[in-house]
Amino acid sequence: MKNTSMTYHIDPVGFIQSPYKEKFAVPRQPRLAPSATSRLKLVGEANSPEAVRGIEQFSHLWLLFLFDQNLEAGWRPTVRPPRLGGNERIGVFASRATFRPNGIGMSAVELKGVVQEGNQTYLELGSIDLVDNTPIIDIKPYIPYSDSIPDALGGFAEKEPDVLNVYLSIEAQKSLSSHPQKAQIEAVIKEVLGQDPRPAYKKGKADNKEYAVNLFDLNVKFTVDSNSITVTAIDRF
């Protein structure tokens, strides 16, 4: 009889540097916030130009990563996907829920280039759906002829989520006006908040609560009505 209680040790090959400083408001899939570019800092033996030699031939990569902030919480056989309103239960393997048996996720991301700064190797990436400092456990090239399946079915996630209009108050605009990354940050704020990051049961509903999310080096406060979001204040950390 095979031993079914085997354990394996995995060391990260790198860590993500992204605008998302917390889980709240991170897009549920990559490319939903195209302005939120990121960087992958390679570590250990993977921190070598040799390890990524030839990778520029590929426009996109698969990143395998750990949901490191959820590992201690464990998992259950069924989950409530936000796309189903947070009420209907389905099997964890029929979802991309973050609470999984081994806490492993994957994302297809754009590769924008390879940068060498002294002895440090970085991969410059496009839009991503990962919290800052997420551990990456493997990197694989995206192969269009095998990885893209045009007639595949998307189940309950067949279409992209609806996007709300996002407006910056005069006060918020003033706070952002002198920031050196103003243009990118404003775009990221609108793309991220437009997904309505509130709990699924609040989607499509107005409420009186003021929410806040940490993006880049900023704390962004906002309110939500039935079809739009208003950024009320932006404060530096």
Automatic annotation (TrEMBL):
Keyword vocabulary terms for this entry: Methyltransferase, RNA-binding, S-adenosyl-L-methionine, Transferase, tRNA processing
Subunit structure: Homodimer.
Family: Belongs to the tRNA methyltransferase O family.
Gene behind this protein: tsaA
Catalytic activity as recorded in UniProt: N(6)-L-threonylcarbamoyladenosine(37) in tRNA + S-adenosyl-L-methionine = N(6)-methyl,N(6)-L-threonylcarbamoyladenosine(37) in tRNA + S-adenosyl-L-homocysteine + H(+)
GO BP annotations, alphabetical order: methylation; tRNA processing
Keyword Ligase: no
UniProt name for this protein: tRNA (adenine(37)-N6)-methyltransferase
Species per Swiss-Prot/TrEMBL record: Aliivibrio finisterrensis
GO molecular function: RNA binding; tRNA (L-threonylcarbamoyladenosine(37)-C2) methyltransferase activity
Domain (TsaA-like): residue spans on this chain: 10-151
UniProt cross-references to InterPro entries, sorted A to Z: TrmO-like_N, TrmO_C, UPF0066_cons_site, YaeB-like, YaeB-like_sf, YaeB_N_sf
